[in-house]
Amino acid sequence: xxxxxTISNLSEEEKxxxxxxxxxxxxxxxxxYKTIEEFNEYMSHIxxxxxxxxxxxxxxxxxxxxxxxxxxxxxxxxxDAYGRSEPTIHAPIVRLLGVHxxxxxxGIARKLLQESIDYAKQKGSPSLYLHTGEIMKDAIxxxxxxxxxxxxxxxxxxxxxxFVRCYRFDID
Length: 172
Prior knowledge:
alpha+beta; Aminopeptidase; 8-stranded mixed β-sheet; 5 helices; 8 strands; 32% helix; 26% strand; globular
């Protein structure tokens, strides 16, 4: 039987399983942090991210058995996404795209991104944005292959060690 991936909105019952997928998907960056404390702080932010009241939508990717394999969050603007006024973006923003390590290579991230673009189009937005760290090289390659273009005007320095890149997908 062919394994079909479906994308849907997160339900309350799926929150814990989705949180586990997120945490598992970001473990790969553990050795990219200077200290384990910095990494643990990053992971604690990810762990509580699904409880953020400013999320407009959380998408989940599931297989035939309704197993959650991937997820991402969509915010309607930069203020909601980052809790800060800069960079100013008045368009949907994707955050925390994650695919469980055992489910990678099956097109799940691409399906989640496409659903996000479709959603931004439904909202009448001319663009969809996302930010990523320079350590996320595989993700950056995916975004660029998918058609996201770098938007230097919306990038920022998070702290002395972390530069945050911005990518924009322009909707036709």
